[in-house]
Design brief:
Elements: H1 7-16, H2 19-40, H3 42-90, H4 92-119, E1 132-141, E2 144-149, H5 156-163, E3 167-176, E4 180-183, E5 186-189, E6 193-196, H6 200-203, E7 208-210, E8 222-226, H7 227-233, E9 247-248, E10 256-262, E11 275-278, H8 279-286, H9 289-292, E12 300-305, H10 312-326, E13 335-342, H11 343-346, H12 362-389, H13 395-403, H14 408-445, H15 451-456, E14 458-459, E15 462-463, H16 464-488, H17 492-497, H18 505-540, E16 550-553, H19 565-577, E17 582-588, E18 597-604, E19 613-619, H20 624-627, E20 632-635, E21 652-656, H21 659-662, H22 668-671, E22 675-678, E23 681-689, E24 704-707, E25 715-720, H23 726-739, E26 747-749, H24 750-756, H25 759-793, H26 795-803, H27 808-842, H28 853-879, H29 883-888
Parallel strand pairs: 6-11, 8-10, 19-24, 21-23
Antiparallel strand pairs: 1-2, 1-12, 1-13, 3-6, 3-12, 4-5, 7-10, 8-11, 9-10, 14-15, 16-25, 16-26, 17-25, 18-19, 18-22, 20-23, 21-24, 22-23
């Protein structure tokens, strides 16, 4: 049998090779095969045939593909890039306008993506985030909602776990503000801390550096420190884990033992704390009521649903739960309704009263993102408009290219290459700017952000960089596609004759985009002015309480509540008054700006049928009203004799103006001497004060009771008559140490605390100022470019009109009316939209500025003025040209 080349290999080679080359390739391979067969044998011949086939495939088939297509493609791409670069370089003005807009938009977007991704990533470090919910509570009295709060009763979590098989586990906790501890004869002021049950560390996924999660909080007088707080306690040469087993003293007889060291809570944890003490310690100190009360509402509960269980399956059961245990008001004095709030929703919901977590306004987060996107859209609209308007200038170029055989796809690819090159340059520049601006942006937001958030975050399980890249490609395709398709519509015959012009839907689309971007600019300018005015209004509003020159000193928690306490307080206050520069001092459990406590079951003798009324309260001493300059409408202030160590003997109260109608009195005067009941005792009203803003102007003024009672840990308010000096603060500290030895002296100024209530508003205002300025600049630059293109096209027309006697004013009116008309239309669209948006926005403030025609007129007039100046400047520049030169223009 005659030996032949391998048929399978020969067949595969035939399919891979070009048909025109197959005969010569196959002949060469066959000749070599028989030569090898004769000299080296069958096996060697087959191996060499295989190797030779690969060689022919490499040098003939692949090389042919490169020569015919691949190299041509590379050459075309290289040509596209060259032409794009030269065009961008030749038209520096338009390149600069487009580049500035794109860089500004992309830079803002990258910064805002950091912010939004961080704000929406809260509590993602918990592996069971999707199954964890917080129990929240709405309380109704007399058919009205009196509290929408995150706090509820200590029994809720354990009872729900027992009643609902859908719940896998729970944890409960309460919250304590800044306190003082004593460790190895040194006193430290703590930050906020949690009192949590034994389930807390296994329920959430906080990292425990040392200790057993199941045992760290399972008994009374145990505590777990965060690494940051532990580092304050260690001595030189010690490690934080060396603190395990050591005692820490609060103002209790028994010390707390350190049983664990916890890694600092992640920045995106809504729970932030310096340490955790065991819940059983709280029970041991405060009594069994902390464990089983259905009336003490100061506790927080989180539940974890079992795998596969949906929140909706529990919603109906929760309604029955409230009715079953609270019996429609018989137990707590109110109708109690319970809901589940997803762990992911907590940080972006600032509507809860008595919030334990770090929260922000979710609408503000999304608003900042939308505005950033608007700026990118405005920049891309500029790009489309300028490239569309330049279409006539490039018509001859495209016409010539088509006449020499350029295909439609090649022209589109050329246009797309220019868009891609421009946006790539803008993106690289933006990344550099983000790195440079990062410290300033972090200072603005008060957060530690970086580009790593953008690089390593995910949304819906998709890596964010991939999502961003896909979105960018789709957007660029849209931005590049319209100008590209437009230039392919040029008729070669019309172009070469010079008769082509933009018309029909093309012109209307260009005008529509101009109107759209200027409408956005109107909205941003109006919003910026409104936000600035609202903040100025809140900061400068008369609160009805004097907080100027007031220093708040943390109270003496290391001082026992005994028969001498009230006298100690009074002596300390008198010693301060003897210092030159101090007007007086007072002590209270709340100061202006802080959240108040609530009394729910109040009954007024003026209307016995009005049961279960609700009011806020502040425990104060007899100098509180005078120091804060609260104005009495009628009645008297507290005196020293209104206080008593025996709380059951304290019986007089002062109410504010808003409490009068709540308690069913006809007037403040009729309230004096009347009796009301709460906390199972009667109280006599001795005075009525004018309403004052206890909290920020986001909140309405509510009824307030001032009660002449105070305790250890209540804070001192010290009023200075002049500028506070370090020497005066040092003198106060010496008096404090003399009267309350062993306590830690620390303080803050009340004006700073009041201003901090508006920190988020100020940040929004600053960011909106930047956004508004950028949107105006980008829109106006785009308008500048469009006017320039239009006037360049009309150079010969302008020359003819000047020769026929048209003056500068006539030319300005003629050439600018089209663009000013578009700006006016944008104002007519943007102004009512601004009004609707701002009316929705101001609903978040209990007290706000008036949103009227004047505010919108100012922003509209400002935009029209800037646009008029821009159009007039460019028009004047063109119309001043020599008419002879204009008539020669091609």
């Amino acid at each position: 049998m005659k030996t032949t080349p391998p048929k399978l290999l020969r067949s595969l080679l035939y399919k891979c090779c070009n048909t025109a080359l197959w005969e010569s390739i196959e002949g060469d391979l066959t000749e070599l095969f028989f030569l090898d067969l004769k000299k080296k044998g069958k096996r060697k011949a087959q191996i060499n045939y295989f190797l030779n086939a690969l060689a022919f495939l490499r040098y003939h088939r692949l090389r042919k593909r490169q020569n015919s297509k691949t190299l041509n493609h590379m050459g075309l791409i290289k040509n596209y890039l060259k032409v794009s670069y030269r065009d961008l370089k030749r038209n520096k003005t338009f390149t600069g306008i487009n580049l500035f807009g794109l860089v500004a938009g992309m830079t803002v977007s990258l910064l805002m993506f950091q912010y939004v991704l961080f704000e929406t990533s809260f509590d993602d470090f918990n592996k069971d985030t999707e199954r964890i919910y917080r129990v929240i509570n709405d309380r109704y009295q007399n058919g009205e909602l009196v509290q929408h709060g995150a706090i509820t009763y200590p029994t809720i979590g354990p009872t729900m776990k027992a009643d609902f098989p859908e719940i896998e586990s729970y944890t409960r906790m309460t919250f304590s503000g800044s306190n003082f501890i004593n460790y190895e004869n040194e006193t430290f002021r703590t930050g906020d801390y949690l009192i949590a049950d034994e389930h807390f560390l296994t329920f959430f996924d906080y990292e425990l550096l040392k200790g057993q999660k199941e045992e760290c909080l399972d008994a009374a007088f145990k505590m777990v420190l965060t690494k940051q707080f532990a580092e304050k306690l260690i001595k030189k040469g010690e490690n934080v884990t060396d603190l395990i087993g050591r005692p820490i003293h609060f103002n209790y007889e028994k010390p707390f033992m350190i049983t664990g060291i916890l890694e600092n809570p992640p920045a995106n944890s809504h729970l932030q704390f310096s340490f955790i003490t065991s819940y059983k310690s709280f029970i041991a100190i405060a009594g069994e009521e902390v464990d089983n009360s259905w009336e003490w509402s100061d506790f927080y509960h989180y539940i974890k649903l079992k795998e596969g269980v949906k929140k909706e399956s529990l919603d109906g059961k929760l309604a029955d739960f409230g009715k079953r245990y609270f019996k429609e008001g018989e137990v707590s004095g109110g109708d109690e309704k319970f809901f589940l709030q997803s762990l992911k929703e907590i940080h972006l919901d600032d509507s809860m009263e008595y919030e334990i977590g770090v929260v922000t306004n979710g609408n503000t987060v999304w608003l900042m993102l939308y505005i950033a996107i608007f700026i990118v859209v405005i920049a891309w609209i500029n790009y489309i408009n300028l490239n569309t308007s330049r279409a006539i200038q490039r018509a001859k170029e495209v016409g010539i290219r088509k006449s020499v055989g350029a295909l439609k796809g090649q022209i589109i690819r050329q246009s797309f290459t220019e868009t891609l090159l421009m946006n790539l340059i803008a993106l690289i520049t933006s990344i550099g700017l983000v790195i440079l601006l990062q410290p300033a942006f972090n200072n603005l937001t008060g957060l530690e952000l970086s580009m790593s958030i953008v690089l390593f975050s995910s949304i819906w399980g998709i890596p964010f960089p991939l999502l961003l890249f896909a979105t960018l490609l789709v957007s660029l395709a849209f931005v590049a596609l319209y100008p590209a398709l437009l230039v392919t519509r040029f008729s070669t015959q019309d172009v070469l004759k010079g008769s082509f012009k933009l018309k029909g839907e093309i012109a209307w689309l260009r005008k529509g985009m101009v109107v759209f971007q200027f409408s956005l600019a109107v909205i941003l300018i109006t919003a910026t002015i409104a936000i600035a005015r609202q903040i100025e209004f809140m900061v400068n509003q008369d609160l009805g309480v004097d907080v100027d020159n007031t220093m708040v000193v943390y109270g003496p928690v290391m001082t026992n509540w005994d028969s001498t306490f009230i006298n100690k307080i009074d002596l300390f206050k008198k010693s301060l008054s003897s210092l030159s520069g101090i007007e007086g001092a007072t002590i209270s459990n709340r100061v202006p700006g802080s959240l108040m406590g609530r009394i729910f079951q109040v009954t007024s003798k003026a209307d016995p049928e009005a049961q279960n009324l609700t009011s806020n309260f502040i425990n104060v001493d007899h100098d509180f009203s005078e120091l804060y300059d609260l104005e009495f409408i009628t009645g008297r202030d507290f005196g020293f004799t209104d206080h008593d160590l025996d709380g059951s003997k304290v019986k007089n109260i002062v109410i504010n103006e808003s409490a009068v109608p709540l308690l069913k009195f006809d007037s403040p005067e009729n309230a004096i001497g009347q009796s009301i009941n709460f906390w199972n005792k009667d109280w006599t009203i001795i005075g009525v004060i004018k309403d004052f803003h206890q909290q920020s102007l986001h909140k309405k003024i509510e009824p307030i009771f001032l009660i002449p009672y105070y305790d250890t840990g209540n804070n001192f308010s010290i009023k200075f008559s002049s500028q506070v000096t370090p020497a005066l603060v040092e003198a106060v500290e010496k008096r404090y140490d003399q009267h309350f030895p062993g306590n830690y002296f620390d303080y803050y100024f009340l004006t700073d605390e009041i201003k901090s209530l508006y920190d988020n508003d100020v940040r929004v205002s600053r960011v909106s100022n930047v956004f508004a300025a950028l949107s105006i600049i980008i829109a106006v630059l785009g308008l500048y470019g469009l006017v320039m293109i239009t006037l360049v096209r009309k150079t010969k027309e302008i020359g003819i009109r000047k020769v026929l006697g048209a003056n500068l004013g006539q030319l300005l009116r003629l050439m600018s009316k089209e663009f000013l008309l578009l700006v006016f239309i944008a104002v007519l669209i943007g102004a009512p939209m601004s009004y609707l948006i701002l009316m929705e926005w101001k609903a978040g403030f209990a007290y706000s500025i008036h949103i009227g025609f004047g505010l919108i007129f100012i922003s509209s007039f400002l935009l029209i003025l800037i646009s008029t100046i821009t159009i007039g400047f460019q028009t004047k520049k063109i119309t001043k040209n020599n008419p002879v030169e204009s008539l020669r223009w091609e």
